[in-house]
Design goal:
229 residues; Spore Coat Polysaccharide Biosynthesis Protein SpsA, Chain A; 9 strands
Length: 229
Amino acid sequence: MYKIDVICLTDTYDNSMYEVTNRVIKSVRISEKNVKFNIILLESNKETNFTYENVDVYIRPEEEFNYNKYLNIANEYLTSDWVLITNNDVIYQREWFSKILEIYNKRPDIESFSPKEVLFYSTIYGDHFDSEDDYFESYRVTESVMGWSLVMRKRVWDEIYPWDENFDFYYQDNDYAKTIESKGIKHAVVRDSLTLHIGNINFFKSNVDEDRDKKMEEDYYKFIKKWNN
């Protein structure tokens, strides 16, 4: 039986967010019959009264939220040969991990993956799988490296760890893509490994948030400075 560590970060500020996080946990649990999931949930809301029971490890760090710092905290709880880093608003479809394993068994030189996000690939990248190919190799973020769902061999995690804590939220996935590319680690999105990222629904709506945009700009310049682009 395959085992995979699942790292999920949440900010449980109300019942709606609690249900969103429970949904991703449930979707992972029921997605595979022959896979054992070790679900590690990190809660960033220090004031929350909500608790989660259907997880293997529940962590409420004392540190202020920092995406990559929280990943580093999760490191000591990893027990498997595979690692999934997921947003708490992703729904995993049946056999999503089995489909990734099928590609890995054919191409063991590819050790980093993302499932295919249905919404993005039905709108923006619909032409990537018109051929017989059942995977698409690329280091481009959202096109192949999907920060809301990253699957990797534990060896890849070990190559990256510790995660760069300068990237506390935005451009964390861009940094991941550049890091694995610099190390010669191949990445692919898998055609038949399916997810739905609820957060992407908002991507297609007009939504101006000045604080968010300012933070994104700050993190963009961190990324540029690190990689000299």
